[in-house]
Amino acid sequence: MRAGDIVVHEVHQARSAPVLTDIETIVAGRLAESGLGDRLPAGASIAITAGSRGIANIAAILRILVDFVRKCGGQPFIVPAMGTHGGGTAEGQQALLAATGVTEQTLGAPIRSCMATMCLGRTPAGTTVRIDRLAHEADGIVVVNRVKPHTDFGGTIESGLLKMLAVGLGKAEGAMLVHSWGTAGLCDIVPQTARAILDTGKILLGLAIVENSWAETALVEAVQPEDFERRDRELLVTAKEWAPKLPFEEAEVLLVRRMGKDISGTGMDAKVIGRTVCLGEGPPPSPRMHVVGVLELTSGTRGNAVGIGMADLTTQRLVDAINIDATRKNTMTARSVPGARIPLALPTDEALLDAMLELLPVPNQRAPRIAIIEDTLHLRRLHASEPLADELRGRGDAAVSDTPQQLPFDADGRLAEL
């Protein structure tokens, strides 16, 4: 079989949870109920965190929060809270925010981006606690983040409000300190660091967001500072139940159209594709992919190709788009050297698929189970070859089209939209 012979069927997965349709009313209501307005002195400067991930409706949510703070007499401003992302520079981090629609124009508030931090002391483990200097100098901080499974490890607290405090607001210095402990740092040092920041009294409120499997906003909750740790744990259980995932446990070929930091911290979510980028961490038990290929980087990742090492094959255009400095900075911070190893690059998408098929054992080449996805965050829709489509038919959580489609390649061997 060659790439041009592959026939696929469109597959639609069901939502894991209903979408929130009136974001403005819901977020404004959560803020009104939180009591935040009663705790804002007139003229108080309030730092609001904004991360680098592609969170649904993030610009709208931040704008509603900005409007609320200003209406209550505060002076809001945005601080990028993303560790070393954006090449570890103030300009790069502001550019990452702009890629998610977060700008001074869309929010009506200044964005104050710097990499300078303040030292707040040490954790019980002896790690220095760092916090964004501009945020610390404000009269108060409101933390906004999505609660979701972490790509590199499993625990009771993974990505959420505490991580935004410890790693996001820690900027490059704080992120490197936490990650220097490996996965133990993420499991243990993140909560210790976050507690030290919470003890300053600077944190006024958290907005926790949980998305469904279609990458839609499904839950927004205002969380009091004393409840950050408890709600991070509880909401993570919900987030894991609702998280995007592939509708199968095994396939011979998985083709990912795009990867990037705006999709996942590891470019491609390791738990979605069944791979890992961490030294000493084995791969997740499922799903099992024999060969993984990826076609290109998102524009929003700005050349950061962390996670490319999880792929077996890629394209030359992806390799040409890599910003080595940004990738190196993020890789060294996260201690995930395997994730930055560049796989064999093929000249075209068609050549990439041909090579993926050649890597299969002979018995699997005759009728391979092939899946093509946009990325590891947006899994509402995917495409499956006939053998895989047959396995998915009749399931209540996936609808398979009866109309087959041959993979369309243009004259340059690039895979067209399906």
Task: Describe the protein in words.
The chain has 418 residues and is α/β, with parallel strands linked by helices. It has two domains: 3-15 and 245-406, no CATH class; 23-242, Rossmann fold, CATH 3.40.50.11440. Helices cover 32% and strands 22% of the residues. The chain contains 15 helices and 16 strands. Strands 1, 9, 10, 11, 12, 13, 14, 15 and 16 form a nine-stranded mixed beta sheet that branches. Strands 3-2-6-7-8 form a five-stranded mixed beta sheet, with helices on both faces. It is globular and about 70 Å long. The mean pLDDT is 93.
For this structure, what is the CATH class of the largest domain? Alpha Beta
Radius of gyration: 22 Å
- What average pLDDT do the residues reach? 93
The count of strands amounts to 16
> What count of structural domains?
2
| CATH-assigned fold name of the largest domain | Rossmann fold
Low-pLDDT residue intervals, each spanning 5 or more residues: none
Q: Sum up the overall morphology in one term.
A: globular
Number of helices: 15
The name of the CATH superfamily of the largest domain reads LarA, N-terminal domain
Distance from first to last alpha carbon: 20 Å
Largest sheet properties: 9 strands, mixed
CATH architecture of the largest domain: 3-Layer(aba) Sandwich
Helicity level, as a percent range?
Answer: 25-40%
Q: Which band does the percent of strand residues land in?
A: 15-25%
Structural class: alpha/beta
